Amino acid sequence: MTGNLPNWKKRLPKNISAKEVTIVSIVIPALNEEDGIVGTIKAIPIKELRDAGYEVEILVVDNGSTDRTGDLAKQAGAQVIFEAIPGYGRAYKTGFAYAKGDIIATADADMTYPLEYIPQMVQYLEKTNLDFITTNRYAYMEDGAMSPLHKIGNSVLNIATRFLFQADLQDSQSGMWVFRKDILNRITVKSNSMAFSQELKIEACFYAKCRWEELPIEYRARVGEAKLKSWQDGFGNLFQLINKRISRSRTNGNGHNHHPLKLADDELFYTENKASIQWRKK
Ligand SMILES: Nc1nc2c(ncn2[C@@H]2O[C@H](COP(=O)(O)OP(=O)(O)OP(=O)(O)O)[C@@H](O)[C@H]2O)c(=O)[nH]1
Ligand SMILES: [Mg+2]
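Above are the sequence and the magnesium ion SMILES. Below is the predicted complex in structure-token form.
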């Protein structure tokens, strides 16, 4: 992209390179995304990341897609992890548990998010000493990228998030984040559903008091069918916000005494390892 450079990109020093090899894990949840998965993976500037001194790992977390998502992801160079328990949040928990990287970057598998920004975002995280970057899709949103109904629903969720958690977020529902993996030890994200996105931000920004910033990005029209269920997920997210505010205040609202984000010991998940599918216990 040229011309309309978001300000945070202009603030970056030129020719930065990482001092030691840092692994960047790019985690992408995908459910029946055969139209978007290849374009999404190909948009990752692997060479640019390597030239800057980073190692790159691409993890696609699939929940039993019935189309060719898994095969196409593998052909495009990603490692595919299969998670038996459905849900956007659950897929991310599994992906994060597998991620080798010190830094994790995320995006949907539908070509809506600008994965080409990942190298600059990673460098921005490091150079400005942040823990967590989230993104604001409203900054450069393409026409038709978000339906009027979703705009209204998201505004309600944004207002509720700001009101309940005093978190100065413009976009509580954005699915593109870049963060240090170690923050997962300081936060408690319970949701397995679409509410994972807002819960992660609330935990990182409000409860764990991470050093965070919300960066403006482009947001494009989706390819393939949406998995978000407008009413169910919209109200589900709203109730989760209220519930979280109440239950978190009752237990450990002072931000201490967190349980690391990890799968419970008795929860099994499986991964496809070359030809064989292996069940593993975390
Ligand atoms: N593995 C897995 N991925 C999921 C699941 N539900 C959604 N996803 C993926 O999570 C990402 C977000 O879902 P979307 O349907 O794009 O939701 P959204 O971005 O809020 O809605 P759109 O604006 O319509 O794209 C996509 O890459 C989906 O394929 C799930 O149950 N399992
Ligand atoms: Mg999407």
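Residues 252-282 have pLDDT under 50 and may be disordered.
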